[in-house]
Amino acid sequence: MSILDWTYIMVGVTFTLYLSIAWISMVKTTKGFYVAGGGVSPLANGMATAADWMSAASFISMAGLISFMGYTGSIYLLGWTGGYVLLALLLAPYLRKFGKFTVPDFVGDRYYSNTARFIALICAIFISFTYVAGQMRGVGIVFSRFLEVDVNTGVLIGMAIVFLYASLGGMKGITYTQVAQYSVLIIAYLVPAIAISLKITGTPIPQLGFGGVIAEGVDNGKYLLETLNRLNVELGFAEYTKPFAEGGKSMLDVFCITLALMVGTAGLPHVIVRFYTVPNVRGARLSAGYALLFIAVLYTTAPAVASFSRYNMINSISNVSYDKSPAWFKNWEQTGLMAWVDKNHDSIINYRSGKPFIGKPQFTGETGSYGQLIVSNTLTDNDNEIYIDRDIMVLANPEIANLPNWVIALVAAGGLAAALSTASGLLLVISSSISHDFYYRLINRNASEKQRLLLGRIMIGFAVCVAGYFGIHPPGFVAQVVAFAFGLAASSFFPILFLGIFSKRTNREGAICGMSAGILFTIIYIINIKFFGGTTWCLGISAEGIGSVGMLLNLVVTIVVSLLTTPPPQEVQDMVDNIRFPRGAGAHFNN
Q1: What CATH topology corresponds to 3-309+403-492?
Q2: Do 415 and 210 meet the contact criterion of CB atoms below 8 Å apart?
């Protein structure tokens, strides 16, 4: 069967499974809608958390970034993994013991202020919309290649699917759907990784193949990473394994991006809310451990996938006549995510360092058909003739390696599972922020269960539409957009959550000023660079890493303002002591 036939089968089966789970899990209470009734087992919650957290950025984009950036690309790997450890150890058990629905709930009650609650819910909505844009973009990329529709149509299909199962089952439906989605995405990631590792290095364990010896071809007997270093240098790139190469990111920027991703992970509202779905504090600790184990399976495989895909891609297309270029190259050309312009008119594909054309190539035409490549008349003076979107590398990897069509379709289903699982969690955060934290807690405390559920489902529909718009008009590639969201989470939530748990002296004035200063500084810096062409004036730190500076600003402002103003009421200080009580997992404290 063709790739298209297999893709319809894989996507059809998995989507039917997700929608069936959502229908079976339909809820009628707000507790079931927002936190799955608090009755999810630690193992299931660990799988759901892993799926919720391993988004399209992890599945689709991360290995692509490492493939192109080499050593520097590891910032995403280290930042996201380290951040989850930070979340599991510092925040998750204590937040579960607090026992509320959402992060704004914690902020509002801990800082005894509706103003603080309102700022927190604005931050949660802003972060979630930024993050979900990357997921919708990932959905569009998968559909554009494997179902032969354009990216925008793919985004619209994804919007419809995620709206159905998020609005039907709420957090309960999303949780058990994410268990299924984790199973799909991890199988889809490992199967091609194992197959390609066998083909290139002769070992079925990708992590060993990553540091192993090439088993066939002209590079037989040579170490994979040493070969990649040589190939990169021959093509004008920096060595694949060289840190802080000239023309790349500075050590300070790499550190700031990694830190922003770490503390941003620990402040992501859609991940934090997962720890409210288990019965008790012990369940929160166990589910954090399970989630870290499930996450590690993919994250230890990603560097190998990145190396395999780059090695195969270079050997497949570099210095090859366009007429004899492989099928995968022409397949991805049709999506507009890969392009070639014959600058020297020799009909040979020249892939080297540097930008191939001025501006990103675009395709025009009706849905399902593709027009001509639109590029500037001014071409750069280097001899690179290929544009490759970094987000395609994992999806194209099985095609580049000539794996069977069913494996290619399986990867497509896995990419959709990763994007949709995270999108659903984010949409629920947006819904709960508006319907619970804003409407119920601030506007109408007498709202009935039925009214709150209806508003929650309406808000999911609204959020899906906005997310779809940003998926069609994204401000960057998938992992970059997601990195912005992590920076916003780092600069707004992490200091407030950390100090709220470990400092009784932190008060509402400090929290309000700190959150406002941190997220406003970060938003302005990112918008200035990405939309107005501004410079990285703050020590050369990029937009992806500025969240770490915003986090420090938030921390300093919160502490200073708290020390200069009235301490929190005694009952709030007692509440902080109760949250941190070491016997929180006992029966008396299972709230």
Answers
A1: Sodium/glucose cotransporter (1.20.1730)
A2: no
244 Cα distance to chain centroid: 24
Q: Tell me the pLDDT band of 587, cut-offs 50, 70 and 90.
A: very low
Give the model confidence (pLDDT) of 72-117 as tens digits: 888 888 888 888 788 877 887 787 777 666 788 888 889 999 899 8
Q: Can you state the angle between helices 393-400 and 62-69, rounded to 10 degrees?
A: 80
> What percent of the residues of the chain are helix, what percent strand, and what percent coil, each to the nearest 5?
70, 0, 25
DSSP secondary structure string, 207-242? HHHHTSB--SSTTTTSBHHHHHHHHHHHTTPPPTT-
- Asked if 196 contacts 308 with a C-beta cutoff of 8 angstroms, the reply is yes
How far is 242 from 306, CA to CA, in rounded Å? 15
Q: At what angle do helices 281-299 and 74-86 cross, to 10 degrees?
A: 170
Banded model confidence at residue 463, pLDDT cuts 50, 70, 90 = confident
Q: List 339's β-bridge partners, or say none.
A: 387
Residues in contact with 151: Cβ distance below 8 Å, sequence separation at least 6, in sequence order: 137, 140, 141, 143, 144, 335, 336, 472
Indicate the SS3 state at residue 252.
helix
Question: 183-212 b/e with 16+ CB inside 10 Å = b?
Answer: bbbbebbbbbbbbbbebbbebeebeebbeb
